[in-house]
């Protein structure tokens, strides 16, 4: 366990969080290197037989130090913008381990990716194929591409993070995919290297993945193309609450292994949340506590600009005290941020241990889509990020200065 209590005080990897708050302004994100490494190795062990190329999905956490730590463990990167591509390169990820995804890559972004010779550009429309062909011709390059298919599979996850259904904007429907494959010869400066798919995020059952593999197998046969790579995307869910179900990756790995053998191809995965989700915590200070009727509003110095998932997806993240007192709060508790919006609220509890103004709390499991989704809304500076590695506190992003955003 990364977070644990010693005599009522919260520790992360054996360092006292209270001590860390003495030198760092809240809110700040704090990550455990140990846990990141554990998760990466765990994922890679599950798929040992498949021996995939693991491309960490940079959008889930785009801190260059974290990408670089993962790179040293062997990871590549899945990027979706010029910024993410440049971050991955800065983190010393080799271009031949980078895949570039996204429905709306611009000409400039594509030029950079082609110039850097990334492993794959996963295209999502015929127009994109045309544009890459045109740029490649000018640059006298043959560009390797993957085609993203929309398999028409419901990932059974939050509707806002589901991408594989037929009415979503992602990928090519099966018939368009086959058409493009048939007419691909006209793109003289492109080479089809891969088929890619990504059906959604926070997926907790392997059924949608199984369905997807079946759809892919059939369509690959129809296309009569020997794809060198099949990029199966990410989406592996994690338990955010104690009783939540864990995805059975072991079983999925067996299915993928069979699939790989039948097709004689290499496999790529693009996990984000599974690698970093439970490795990060957001530490925040209680600014005020105000009691309205029977409810205590605990007003934090972290808001929806710092951590957006509850406001955006109604996601529930537990909040635990940094100093756990034996006494209980009188009445219900709702943790809220300081932002002028009613959705700037995090979580509610019926009973909670006693809190006082200026105490600290920890918002848990925020390593994925936490800091990377944060913004300057209300002209608030981006929070700092800290990595705990081998007993040391490393600042991996300093807190933004207000002057930088004015
Ligand atoms: N590959 C592609 C093409 C993707 O679009 C995504 C995520 C991933 C890989 C990584 O998915 P993961 O393994 O992390 O599930 N902001 C939302 C999640 C949006 C996911 C977008 N795409 C959230 O906070 O839950």
Descriptive account of the structure:
- By secondary structure, this protein is an alpha/beta fold.
- The chain folds into 2 domains: 3-31 and 277-405, Lyase, Ornithine Decarboxylase, Chain A, domain 1; 33-274, TIM Barrel.
- It is built from 11 helices and 20 strands.
- Strands 4, 13, 14, 15, 16, 17, 18, 19 and 20 form a 9-stranded mixed β-sheet that branches.
- It is elongated, with a radius of gyration of 23 Å.
- Ligand LLP binds at residues 57, 60, 78, 101, 161, 198, 201-202, 233-236, 270-274, 309, 313, 368-369, 373.
Question: What characteristics describe this protein?
Answer:
nine-stranded mixed beta sheet; binds ligand LLP; eight-stranded parallel β-barrel; 20 strands; 11 helices; alpha/beta; 406 residues; 2 domains; Lyase, Ornithine Decarboxylase, Chain A, domain 1; elongated; TIM Barrel
């Amino acid at each position: 366990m990364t977070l644990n209590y010693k005599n009522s005080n919260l520790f992360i990897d054996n360092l006292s969080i209270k001590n860390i708050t003495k030198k760092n302004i809240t809110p700040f994100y704090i990550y455990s290197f140990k846990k990141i490494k554990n998760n990466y190795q765990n994922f890679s062990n599950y798929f040992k037989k498949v021996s995939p190329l693991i491309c960490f999905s940079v959008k889930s956490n785009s801190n260059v130090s974290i990408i670089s730590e993962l790179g040293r463990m062997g990871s590549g990167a899945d990027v979706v913008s010029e910024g993410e591509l440049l971050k991955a390169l800065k983190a010393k990820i080799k271009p031949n381990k980078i895949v570039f995804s996204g429905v709306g890559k611009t000409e400039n972004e594509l030029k950079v990716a082609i110039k850097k010779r990334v492993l794959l550009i996963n295209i999502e429309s015929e127009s994109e194929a045309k544009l890459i062909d045109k740029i490649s011709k000018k640059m006298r390059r043959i560009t390797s591409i993957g085609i993203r298919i929309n398999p028409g599979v419901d990932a059974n996850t939050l509707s806002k993070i589901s991408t594989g259904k037929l009415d979503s904007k992602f990928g090519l429907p099966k018939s368009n995919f086959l058409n493009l494959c048939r007419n691909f010869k006209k793109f003289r400066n492109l080479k089809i290297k891969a088929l890619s798919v990504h059906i959604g995020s926070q997926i907790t059952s392997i059924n949608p993945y199984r369905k997807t593999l079946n759809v892919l197998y059939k369509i690959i046969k129809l296309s009569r193309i020997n794809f060198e790579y099949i990029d199966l995307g990410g989406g592996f869910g994690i338990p955010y609450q104690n009783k939540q179900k864990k995805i059975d990756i072991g079983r999925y790995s067996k299915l993928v292994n069979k699939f790989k053998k039948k097709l004689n191809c290499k496999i790529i995965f693009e996990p984000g949340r599974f690698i970093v989700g439970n490795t990060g915590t957001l530490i925040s200070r209680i600014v005020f506590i105000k009691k309205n009727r029977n409810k205590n509003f605990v007003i934090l110095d972290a808001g929806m600009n710092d951590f957006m998932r509850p406001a955006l997806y109604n996601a529930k993240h537990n909040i635990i005290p940094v100093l756990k007192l034996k006494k209980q709060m009188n009445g219900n508790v709702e943790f809220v941020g300081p932002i002028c919006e009613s959705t700037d609220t995090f979580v509610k509890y019926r009973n909670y241990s006693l809190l006082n103004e200026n105490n600290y709390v920890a918002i848990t499991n925020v390593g994925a889509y936490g800091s990377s989704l944060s913004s300057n809304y209300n002209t608030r500076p981006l929070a700092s990020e800290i990595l705990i590695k081998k007993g040391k506190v490393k600042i991996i992003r300093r807190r933004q200065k207000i002057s930088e955003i004015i």
